[in-house]
# Entry
Amino acid sequence: MTLLDNAKRLRREMTDAEQRLWHHLRAHRFLGLKFKRQKPIGPYIVDFICTERWLVIELDGGQHQQQAEYDHQRERYLAGRGYRVLRFWNHQVLAETEAVLERIRLAVGEQDGL
# Structure
């Protein structure tokens, strides 16, 4: 399976947390910004990306506790290409959606110097 095929599959099979966050980010609903989901960047597929702000948002489930080194490597790769990475646990998105959106808003504001 190619990286693009895998990204398409991931878009079809979104987790509940991804669906919840995507509802708020899609169609320029969040601060008028354009976000994409399950986007290939080099050898990786990021959960959400706003290319105009060089911002990547990653949602982590329980499996990420066992792959901390892999996640760190991904973050180094993305940071080396100018992206800022925000990470949230799935349960945070589901239980504290507004707080997650506020953290994203603050990250965008930091880039604007606000």
Notes: The first helix runs from residue 3 to 12. The mean pLDDT is 91. Residues 3-105 form a domain with the Endonuclease; Chain A fold (CATH 3.40.960.10).
